[in-house]
Design a protein that fits this description.
Blueprint lengths: L1 H24 L9 E5 L2 E6 L3 E5 L7 H4 L2 H7 L16 H8 L13 H18 L56 H11 L9 H4 L1 H13 L9 H6 L6 H5 L6 H9 L10 H16 L10 H4 L18
Antiparallel strand pairs: 1-2, 2-3
Bound molecules: 2-acetamido-2-deoxy-beta-D-glucopyranose (4 copies).
């Protein structure tokens, strides 16, 4: 009898030690209490390292409150499969660390829980479709292969545009081929993003394929900033901060997912009717909405969800400066 008691006690001790180790693993994602202040009548908060600037957005849920590591695994379940090209590169921690820079500015923290989750699904919709190695009959379906690349595999050129030699000169030997979660191409884009993130990407574009946190940071920066002054960012168009002008309405540009594609890709994807390039991005978005438990029925009507009939903000004939 006594022996048995002792064994049970021992077992309990072992279980609690395992519990402790498990807890330590998650220590870096544990949040300290929120700091709350009222500034000029607006409630402002700081939420530990994840939302670490006094901001109204930090009073809401933060991304780790509604997206955990298991869900991230579910969304990008095949990214480390044998056919993938960036095995071991992308992970939950790098996404959360990158997002921490932008949560005080509203990334994944705007609106209520549903809008917040929809924004992350939308952002991932772009990321997943741009980094997928899925194809029609792939195991698990073609949409399960997001984050399977972190760079262009066989670049046909170095993407050095001499027009920008004064602002963003190419570094001899550096190659500005596609890299990242929303792939960056060209010296002027590496230059502009490097400037914004205070990273020397003109000399070291390879950082983006070596460091997943930087790769996600660059992608979230692109999502949070307009291509051109006076235009909305994908974030503003998606969460409804942006109010369309009469010209926008005539051009069929409405707040929502469709317009985020217009901003990021213009006539490469939008205003072309019902094309695969557009449908693939939309399919990824709806797939992530389902997996996150929001449900694709929350994606909204056709004219909000796609950009088949939209006129591009920046037609290719007149390219945006740093786009
Ligand atoms: C954190 O905790 C969850 C469950 O509570 C677990 O699945 C996960 O592996 C832990 N570790 C990290 C690093 O997230
Ligand atoms: C915080 O969430 C609430 C709903 O939960 C929402 O009404 C409010 O607009 C959000 N705050 C910000 C700054 O987006
Ligand atoms: C990756 O980039 C982040 C953000 O710039 C930085 O904090 C981190 O130290 C980098 N990791 C490595 C291994 O260089
Ligand atoms: C209206 O949109 C068209 C193309 O969609 C553009 O060429 C024009 O400059 C816009 N006008 C204004 C006032 O923004």
């Amino acid at each position: 009898m006594e022996m048995r008691m002792r064994m049970i006690l021992c077992l309990l001790v072992i279980i609690s030690i395992i519990g402790c180790v498990h807890g330590d693993e998650n220590e870096s994602f544990r949040k300290r209490p929120t700091i709350v202040k009222t500034v000029k009548g607006t409630k402002m908060c700081v939420k530990d390292w994840e939302c670490n600037k006094l901001s109204k957005f930090c009073c809401n849920l933060t991304i780790t409150d509604y997206l955990d590591t298991d869900q991230f695994e579910l969304l990008f379940t095949k990214r480390n499969s044998p056919v993938a090209h960036a095995v071991g590169f992308w992970d939950y921690g790098s996404f959360i660390r990158a997002a921490a820079l932008y949560q005080p500015l509203g990334f994944g923290t705007t609106g209520g829980k549903k809008m917040q989750m929809k924004e992350i699904a939308a952002f991932f919709g772009h990321v997943g479709s741009k980094t997928s190695c899925g194809y029609g009959v792939a195991t698990g379906g073609p949409l399960a292969y997001g984050l399977c690349y972190n760079k262009e595999m066989s670049p046909s050129q170095d993407y050095c545009d001499d027009y920008f030699k004064l602002t963003y000169p190419c570094t001899p030997g550096a190659r500005y081929y596609g890299r990242g979660a929303l792939p960056i191409y060209w010296n002027y884009n590496y230059g502009a993003i490097g400037e914004a993130l205070k990273l020397n990407l003109l000399d070291h574009p390879e950082y983006i394929e070596q460091n997943a946190t930087m790769a996600f940071q660059a992608a979230i920066w692109r999502w949070m900033n307009p291509m051109k002054k006076g235009q909305p960012s994908a974030h503003d168009a998606f969460v409804g901060n942006w109010k369309p002008t009469k010209n926008d309405t005539l051009s069929k540009r409405l707040p929502g997912f469709g317009t985020t594609m217009n901003i990021l890709y213009g006539d490469g994807v939008c205003g072309q009717g019902d094309v695969d390039a557009m449908n693939n991005i939309v399919s990824h978005y709806m797939y992530y909405l389902d997996l996150m438990g929001v449900g694709r029925e929350e994606a909204g009507p056709h004219e909000v969800l796609n950009c088949a009939e939209q006129k591009p903000f920046n037609p290719t004939a007149a390219p945006a400066a740093a786009s």
